């Protein structure tokens, strides 16, 4: 089992630099009315303006970039029917790594099309997410890919 450790401030700075090469700088806006209502200084980071419309691409970029090249070449696999799958597909493409996304049958065709456009291989499996996740874990084990939770 992998032991997780908290990132250091240097790890965070490095992640920011790495991700910054592949994503947009999104606006940070103060909301005076919310600030007044909540009696706090409220700021909102608008990740909805990010590539793919989600903050998740930041994590995908950092995960793939920190994976050793020999492991990256084996590829990444995850189960997702949305932003997570798009982020791993985008990051894999940015670092020339193979990527497979397992989606439940009947997933949103727009999201599936976006994942395909990002270069990932799609596999439709199962009628619920749990079956898709199980299949993604099997693929990781059988084909030596990195499973991304």
Automatic annotation (TrEMBL):
| Similarity field | Belongs to the serine/threonine dehydratase family.
Protein name per Swiss-Prot or TrEMBL: Tryptophan synthase beta chain-like PALP domain-containing protein
Q: Where is the Tryptophan synthase beta chain-like PALP domain?
A: 22-148
Q: Name one GO biological process term.
A: isoleucine biosynthetic process
Q: Which UniProt keywords apply?
A: Lyase, Pyridoxal phosphate
Which coenzyme or cofactor does it need?
pyridoxal 5'-phosphate
What PANTHER family does the entry give? BLL6502 PROTEIN, THREONINE DEHYDRATASE, MITOCHONDRIAL-RELATED
MF term (GO), any: L-serine ammonia-lyase activity
